[in-house]
Design a protein that fits this description.
It contains 9 helices and no strands. It is an all-alpha fold and about 190 residues long. The protein folds into 2 domains: about 45 residues, Arc Repressor Mutant, subunit A (Orthogonal Bundle); about 120 residues, Tetracycline Repressor, domain 2, CATH 1.10.357. α1 packs across α4, α5 packs antiparallel against α9 and α6 packs across α7. The longest helix is centred in the N-terminal third of the chain and has 26 residues. The model has no long low-confidence stretch (mean pLDDT about 90).
Length: about 190
């Protein structure tokens, strides 16, 4: 097994534990046991807990940004309505773009940690920017595109933090309702 592969396994397992137990579950001994490797492997790949945290946040941000970029690129040229419909499907299904337990854990962690908060802010900004770009051809101004982008994004965030979370068919129905208001062409 290569160094990169093992490092990536540590990071992927860290994200899984973070989603399950929050940041308090990110203990070296626990991660090593789950991976079936020694704690020495951890120290080979990371400069202690702070190094792991920085790498974990970078890994998380990279995965979310790549998923968003790939999702939008997959529908390039199909028109804004089709792109938004596709994003609706991704946002309500089992896809890298929507991992509610992990997202909720990171957002909770961000409340008490500036480094995590900065990472989450960059992710949110990138997602809103991508949605705004998708909306821009359909509305008369950048301000309208931003407002339109915020609606589904805020619905997604609210659905994640509701107790219990709004998922599956219920969330899909909400997005389908929102999608019905998307104009086919620019109306302004």
């Amino acid at each position: 097994m290569t160094m990169r592969t093992t490092r990536t396994r540590w990071l992927d397992e860290g994200l899984a534990v973070l989603a399950e137990d929050g940041p308090s579950g990110l203990r070296i001994d626990r991660l090593a046991a789950r991976l079936g490797v020694t704690k020495g492997s951890f120290h080979h790949h990371f400069a202690g807990a702070p190094g792991f945290k920085a790498a974990l946040l970078e890994h998380y941000e990279e995965r979310v940004r790549e998923a968003l970029t790939d999702a939008i690129a997959a529908r390039e040229g199909e028109g804004t309505h089709a792109t938004l419909a596709w994003l609706t499907e991704l946002a309500t299904g089992d896809h890298e773009l929507r991992r509610p337990r992990l997202d909720t854990a990171v957002r909770a962690w961000a409340q008490s940690d500036a480094e995590v908060r900065e990472t989450q802010a960059r992710i949110d900004a990138a997602a809103i920017e991508a949605l705004q770009a998708a909306w821009r051809p359909l509305v008369a101004s950048d301000a309208q595109a931003r407002a339109a982008a915020l609606v589904p994004y805020l619905v997604s965030l609210g659905a994640e933090v509701a107790v219990p979370p709004i998922e599956g068919d219920d969330l899909h129905a909400v997005y389908e309702l929102l999608l019905a208001f998307v104009p086919e062409t620019h109306g302004g």
